TrEMBL record:
It comes from Paenibacillus selenitireducens. The lineage of its organism: Bacteria, Bacillati, Bacillota, Bacilli, Bacillales. The keyword Oxidoreductase applies. Belongs to the nitroreductase family. GO terms for molecular function: oxidoreductase activity. This is Nitroreductase family protein.
Length: 214
């Protein structure tokens, strides 16, 4: 069963209704166009110097989801969800700086002089960073876009669950992931067969310090 859901919801409703869902209706298919729309909205997330290191692999063919199942420790949502989106951080993301900033100049968002300054900053800074700092950046930016993707999906009436439980080495081998792609997470996406269960949160007082940490 194919479906297309386009709902505009209050932001706080989206936030409160988003739950991690592990049981999906396997008959629901989300079109490539709608998946692209979700990804397009997600890419409005912020990133370090607007260099957008995120990369995606959308797995929506059933045979490939079946291939992924044992790699993801047989978590059933992998095969029942409409799609599984693998989120990566490109460890060579800074190579896109010239293209991104040139588009900003074309759009009137920055001057050519600012563009040249930004490109120089990228070349002198990010390119020469140690691997640990690079990984930290792509994981932060990858986390930001992953959360945004899940909220966009919920706003459109779909459900998601972020997944860190999978064999990264086997995944990279099975799906021929480039060596410079850093795994962030998998996100299963579809229509819930059973709602995600309610959870509790620590209070703000329990997790927040004001002005100093004692």
């Amino acid at each position: 069963m194919s479906t297309s859901v386009d709902q505009k919801q209050d932001f706080f409703t989206v936030v409160h209704e988003r739950h991690s869902v592990r049981y999906y209706d396997p008959s629901v298919q989300i079109s490539k166009q709608e998946l692209e729309d979700i990804l397009q909205e997600a890419t409005l997330a912020p990133s370090s110097s607007n260099l957008q290191p995120w990369r995606f692999l959308v797995i929506d063919e059933q045979a490939l989801k079946e291939k992924l199942l044992p790699i993801a420790y047989n978590q059933q949502q992998v095969v029942d969800a409409s799609a599984v989106i693998a989120v990566f951080g490109d460890m060579e993301w800074f190579n896109e700086g010239e293209k991104i900033y040139a588009k900003s100049v074309e759009a009137g968002y920055m001057s050519e002089a600012v563009k040249q300054q930004m490109v120089a900053t990228v070349d002198n800074g990010y390119r020469n960073m140690d691997e640990a700092r690079k990984k930290k950046i792509v994981h932060i930016d990858g986390g930001l876009i992953s959360m945004q993707l899940m909220l966009v999906a919920r706003a459109k009436g779909y459900d998601t669950v972020p997944m860190g439980g999978y064999d990264v080495a086997k995944f990279n081998e099975a799906f021929e992931i480039p060596a410079h792609y850093e795994n962030i997470m998998l996100i299963a996406l579809g229509k819930a067969a059973k709602p995600g269960h309610a959870t509790v949160r620590l209070s703000v007082d329990e997790v927040t310090h004001w002005n100093t940490i004692k």
